[in-house]
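Data availability (excerpt). The following record was deposited with the supplementary files.
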Amino acid sequence: MTAPPTVVPWIPPVLYGAVLAGGTYHTAVSDGPVHAGRTAGFTAGLLLLLALELAERRRPPTGTPARAAAALLAARLVLCSAVAALDGSGVSRALFVLVPFTAHLAFGRRAGLLCGAGCVALLVTGYTLWVPRWWVRTEYVSDLLMFGLALALAGSMAAVAVREQRSRTRLEGALAELADSHERLSAYALRVAELSTADERNRVAREIHDSLGHHLTAVAIQLEKAEAFRALDPQAAAEAVSDARWSAGRALTEVRESVSALRDARPFSLTRALADLVRHLGDDRLTVTLHVTGDEAGYDAESLTALYRAAQEALTNAHRHGRATRIDVTAAYGESTARLVVADNGRGFATGPAEPAGGTGFGIRGMRERVEGLGGRVDIDGTDTVGSTDAPASRAAGGAVVTVTVPRSPLLASGAR
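Predicted structure:
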């Protein structure tokens, strides 16, 4: 497939009109007899060239097959030769300039040069056959030189037109690629927005489950215990009500902290959050201490939040289930990992039918899922097996130790697993 020529549309009709005017004027002022058939053939040839030009302009923008382009070029060459043979003025020789110009546009520079050389050879052959000793006559030599100069200009114009056409094609391709890239980018942006919304929704749901849901569950359990032991053990019922009141207070406090965090432009600080948690948890029956080493700078908010939720779960279990009177909280920020250790002097993690041994209840399970999703781990040492007579000797001292470790780069860690 060859691309359609990008010749300036008004050049061929103007040239045909000029040749027709020149030939007609020469016939009108000539002293010789007027040949009506010759004049009619001359005019018909020019009209056919104009019709051929109009037909080429109606070609589809995808181009013309090589055979069809070659046939059109041959037809133009034949018509130009016929018009030149019927023209007595010699003006029609200018029509041959269009032949190499069109060949250059349709088939390339080499085809244009070959057609130009052929047109010069055709003109020289015509002079040789019909003009004796033309090479010594100034007007014919001058015409030949002017014709060669016109061919050179036509070739230069064709080269410029080809470069312009290629630049236009590249620009259109670049614009199409840009539009396609913009469309894909818009689709990606929409997808990212949807994923971000879903991720934020999941994060909020997890926060509600790990904080508010945990305390509300504890309140419901303690109230059920208080109702069950109200008549049999008033002291146990009172303790259950007290624990329910504490859990409700913690739920309210955490809701306020979450709302404050959403409104606060400051980034999440685990050290500050742990200090607030310890301050609100300690009372006359429970002593909670906090030890912090290292700097949390460089750790992302998701990892720090996971450690904070683990601290909440461990402290709640130590206070509510373990009946601890002392809890030590240690946060250590290292170069590659951050570690949280919560140790108490209570009776460990109580296990029964509702909570399997090893601390695998819903709270601990959620803690493990959150931490392991970041490439970290949760270790729990100390489980009080209710009703068991063969508890390990290491449990004689009582208490539980919860150790949570998260890497500095959770995405890299999760990708490596």
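Summary of structural features: The chain has eleven helices and seven strands.
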